[in-house]
Amino acid sequence: MAAFFNQRNVIALLVLFSVAFPFITQNEYFLHIMTLSFIWMIGVYGLNLLAGYTGYLSLAHAGFFAIGAYSLGLLTVKAQMNFWLAFVLACLITSVVGLFVGLIALRTKEHFFAIYTLCVGYIIYLVIDKWESLTEGVRGLIGIPAPSNIGPIAFDNALSIYYLVLTILLLVILVVYRIVHSLNGRTYLAIRNSEDLAQTIGISTMKNKLTVFVLSTFFAGLAGALYASFVRFIGPDIGSTAITFDLLTYLLVGGIGTLSGPIVGTIIIVWVSQQLQFLQDYRMLIFGPVLTLLIIFYPRGIVGGVVDWRHKYQEKKNRKLSVNSLVKPEKQVKEG
């Protein structure tokens, strides 16, 4: 039973459930919430790749999310560019901005890095909010187009957009899986465990950290572009620090540094939030204590807690087998 609850099986089950979800319910509101969850998951995977595998917590994630969203919105609404070309450029623009921010931010460490990125995120929010001639300020961008057709495939209803976002999410999970289980993934873990030790054995820590940071911002921009095309209206609030802390909450609840954590945490928090809409102004009174208790007793989140339980169960089973293997020969000697 314990062997069944490995991360690969959990992800496979969640993917199968996601594919079958539209057949389970015909409610478009539920499809809307699930599609929105998938978009957040993409952003959380980017945050997890940086914070979970290199140990650098970026608090500018909402800012990069907003850059991706506004890049797509401005290129399609004001520049009248083709949707998919604008979509690709939005991700690239976010990555380039992430590259320049990372070159400076990664010269700091630990809480200094978190504070610096928090300031960067707030600056991005202020630029979006105050540069009215470009971003329309608090009025926001209206009329962002939905994804255009790809050959015979049209994205003109909730179901088709649902499967489009799900497909992109699966590609993101595959990319993250390949990165984590590659030599580069081991390098990132070495940096997280001890950056000084990693440097002494010849690892270029700055190069590796910058690569992860740019990848993280790319996923944030990708999520932002999908969000803009999904809701079709965006305002400065999508770049606020509240969005960053929402993404961080999804990650901490699911399990930081785990592959299935972003899926589990996002699904749970988003759906619980929807059920508690009548307590919207007081939801942190509920989530705050729960999150605090979770961090105290399960610092690696729900998925991390299950993984730890599985390892303890396996160790206990192995010890029992080793004890039995030592006891049996003694019995045989006595009987002889």
UniProtKB/TrEMBL annotation:
How does it sit in the bilayer? Multi-pass membrane protein
Output the InterPro entries linked to this UniProt entry: ABC_transp_permease, LivM-like
Q: Where in the cell is it found?
A: Cell membrane
**What lineage does the source organism belong to?**
Bacteria, Bacillati, Bacillota, Bacilli, Bacillales
Query: Keyword annotations for this protein?
Result: Cell membrane, Membrane, Transmembrane, Transmembrane helix
Spell out the molecular function terms from Gene Ontology.
branched-chain amino acid transmembrane transporter activity
Native organism is Peribacillus glennii
Q: Which PANTHER family match?
A: HIGH-AFFINITY BRANCHED-CHAIN AMINO ACID TRANSPORT PROTEIN BRAE, HIGH-AFFINITY BRANCHED-CHAIN AMINO ACID TRANSPORT SYSTEM PERMEASE
Q: Does the keyword Magnesium apply?
A: no
The name this protein carries in UniProt is Branched-chain amino acid ABC transporter permease
Q: Which residues cross the membrane?
A: 32-51, 58-77, 83-105, 112-128, 161-180, 210-235, 247-272, 284-303
Pfam families assigned to the protein according to its UniProt record, in alphabetical order: BPD_transp_2 (PF02653)
